[in-house]
Design a protein that fits this description.
The protein has a 4-stranded antiparallel beta sheet with strand order 1-7-3-4, with no helix packed on it. Strands 9-13-12-11 form a 4-stranded mixed beta sheet, with no helix packed on it. Strands 2-6-5 form a 3-stranded antiparallel beta sheet, with no helix packed on it. It is built from 4 helices and 16 strands. With 270 residues, it is α+β, with helices and mostly antiparallel strands. The protein is flat and about 70 Å long.
């Protein structure tokens, strides 16, 4: 079974040495527990992805269903484009989005419509296209002398998806599978490879990540499930009448539940 893009941990997070006999079963547990966690916290994904949502509104604010919001691509009211507000421009018919928390777990964000946006009884519905998920945006880095590889800092959790690389002064680099040339990069598990021609240039990295505490909760739950396969249905056992071992069986383990509560999305789904 291949890894799922929504997995919260990887095989390498659970064992250092591959085991072809048991890796398939472990991979199934990784995907199963990851999907269970995403369902429990009411999220389709925690990595950056695009959303298109339509709302009935009667006030000047919309609570977006996914967070943290990294980019709003478009807002339309009955097919008419609503532009973003520009501070100091005097634009009254624009929109703005509450800033995202820098660190996880974050919080839901409001998209606020300016007083010049006409909202009246029976008004057309508002459609919002945006990107949301846990992301490090424009992390500064320097291409090593002679080219080569540099690693993302990953301050809040393990690198999980590529969001692009750009020169600090502007201009995006092109992703390639391997052996980049000038203006290109390759990335694997947070390690970025650059061409010798770009040595010494300042770049910025954007990437999605899995919050460390959520990944650790998933890892512990997976290990618990793997241990359970050795004692399916067993609640306790006695050792020679001298000692009794009891096993707690719960839908969500006690050591996982507090972490999940921090990340649970309370905004109703679409």
């Amino acid at each position: 079974m291949a890894p799922n893009p929504y997995d919260l941990v990887q095989l390498s997070d659970l064992r250092a040495t591959p085991d072809p006999d048991t890796d398939p079963a472990l991979q199934r547990q990784i995907t199963a527990v990851s999907r269970t966690i995403l369902s429990a916290i009411n999220r389709a994904s925690i990595l950056p992805r695009a959303y298109v949502e339509t709302y009935d509104v009667g006030r000047a604010g919309l609570l977006l269903r996914a967070y943290p919001v990294t980019r709003v691509d478009s807002v339309s009211l009955g097919g008419l484009v609503v532009k973003p507000s520009v501070p100091g421009s005097g634009l009254q018919a624009g929109y703005e989005v509450d800033p995202a928390d820098e660190m996880p777990p974050g919080r839901p964000q409001m998209l606020r419509l300016g007083p010049g946006v006409s909202l009246y009884a029976g008004a057309p519905r508002v459609t919002v296209s945006y990107t949301a998920g846990y992301q490090v945006t424009a992390e500064p880095a320097m291409v090593p002398q002679g080219g080569g590889t540099l690693s993302a800092l990953q301050p809040w959790g393990a690198w999980a998806s590529d969001g692009g690389v750009a020169y600090a002064e502007g201009g995006a680099l092109v992703p390639v599978a391997s052996t980049p040339t000038a203006g290109q990069y390759a990335v694997s598990a947070g390690d970025y490879q650059f061409a010798a021609a770009d040595a010494g240039r300042a770049v910025v990295l954007t990437y999605g990540y899995v919050p460390a505490d959520l990944a650790n909760a998933a890892r512990e739950w997976i290990l618990e499930r793997m241990a359970y396969t050795e004692r399916v249905g067993l609640q306790s056992k006695s050792l020679g009448g001298q000692e009794t071992i009891s096993y707690r069986i719960a839908a969500v383990p006690d050591f996982v539940a507090p972490v999940l509560r921090q990340y649970t999305n309370v905004v109703p789904p679409c």
